[in-house]
């Protein structure tokens, strides 16, 4: 908070009351809080403030500005980067929305590879929540844009134990029909059970059978497999996967995409989330607005006891907020 002494000493004239200026400062601070920026408030207030009022803002906003040994108020470096990200949030969402879905996924995969392990879930997300044709389209777009295949870049950039699984997932073209071989699903459930039971001896991510099952079997087959798995283990697959985040994301993206997407969005809207996590809100809404947003919103409200639109209104600002609200409401206007 800004002290009354600082406010009074820096007010330009008695014509602007302490209360009025305090209210404007509150509006400006609110405009900078959350995801995105409240551009209209900043334009209407900052555009008319004089040098003394701006100085008062700098002196009293310690989360943005700090004084050096010469009493010079300068922006905190971390906040400069955060403000840049927030100002760009609307632009990034708009650019992603206008892209062809295949190009968008290709660029998201490339960005995830460049980000490193912290964005591994994006690769799993795209590989496991898209249809076979959509994933094939993304692979074609990737080849066209970067003149390399997705498979070779995943193999090149991913150097951890996830490499085998990720290469298999992005290379997949799953059967999408309704037929499920229950005997095969039951047999493969035993294979997965044994692999997880012996995870201390061999990482399931390196198990060829587990990787093959997750990468090539139809989603209905895998869902049936996990039902058989629960009968064998007495636990759900989620419980037995423990802390293996890559496998957990893979299973959730295949079997319960709306639940996965809700998890990503909720993490993105936590105040302390890092920038990489925050980007998940834009990514999910832009990529799912015309796919399964209705289901996602229903799951979100059931899981978090608040509608997605209400949560966005609380945490987001300005044009970014308005754009997200428009996208998640698209099916209501059709």
From TrEMBL:
Lineage top rank: taxon: Eukaryota
GO BP: response to cold; response to heat; response to salt stress; response to water deprivation
Sequence positions that bind Ca(2+): 32, 34, 36, 271
Record bears the keyword Repeat: yes
Gene3D superfamilies, alphabetized: Annexin
TM regions (residue ranges): none
InterPro entries (UniProt xref): Annexin_repeat (IPR018502), Annexin_sf (IPR037104), AnnexinD_plant (IPR009118)
MF GO annotations: calcium ion binding; calcium-dependent phospholipid binding; phosphatidylserine binding
Keywords: Annexin, Calcium, Calcium/phospholipid-binding, Metal-binding, Repeat
GO annotations of cellular component type: cytoplasm; plasma membrane
Protein name: Annexin
The species this protein was found in: Lactuca virosa
């Amino acid at each position: 908070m800004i002290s009354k002494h600082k406010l009074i000493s820096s007010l330009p004239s008695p014509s602007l009351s302490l209360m009025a200026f305090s209210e404007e400062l509150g509006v400006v601070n609110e405009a900078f809080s959350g995801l995105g920026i409240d551009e209209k408030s900043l334009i209407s207030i900052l555009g008319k403030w004089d040098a003394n009022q701006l100085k008062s803002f700098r002196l009293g906003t310690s989360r943005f500005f700090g004084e050096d040994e010469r009493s010079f108020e300068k922006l905190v470096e971390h906040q400069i980067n955060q403000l840049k990200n927030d100002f760009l949030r609307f632009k990034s969402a708009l650019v992603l929305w206008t892209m062809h879905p295949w190009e968008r996924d290709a660029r998201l995969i490339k960005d995830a590879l460049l980000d490193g392990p912290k964005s591994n879930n994006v690769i799993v997300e795209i590989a496991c929540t898209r249809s076979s044709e959509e994933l094939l389209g993304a692979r074609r777009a990737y080849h066209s844009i970067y003149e390399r295949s997705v498979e070779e870049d995943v193999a090149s950039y991913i150097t951890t134990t996830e490499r085998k699984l990720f290469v298999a997932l992005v290379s997949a073209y799953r059967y999408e029909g309704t037929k499920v071989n229950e005997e095969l699903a039951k047999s493969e459930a035993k294979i997965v059970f044994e692999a997880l039971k012996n995870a201390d001896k061999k990482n399931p991510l390196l198990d060829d059978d587990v990787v093959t099952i997750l990468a090539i079997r139809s989603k209905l087959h895998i869902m049936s497999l996990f039902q058989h798995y629960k009968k064998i283990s007495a636990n759900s697959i989620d419980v037995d996967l423990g802390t293996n985040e890559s496998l957990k994301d893979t299973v959730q993206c295949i079997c319960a995409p709306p639940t996965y997407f809700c998890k990503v969005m909720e993490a993105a809207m936590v105040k302390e989330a890092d920038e990489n996590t925050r980007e998940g809100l834009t990514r999910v809404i832009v990529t799912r607005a015309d796919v399964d947003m209705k289901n996602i919103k229903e799951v979100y409200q059931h899981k978090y006891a608040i509608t997605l639109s209400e949560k966005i209104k609380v945490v987001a600002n300005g044009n970014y907020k308005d754009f997200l609200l428009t996208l998640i409401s698209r099916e209501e206007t059709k």
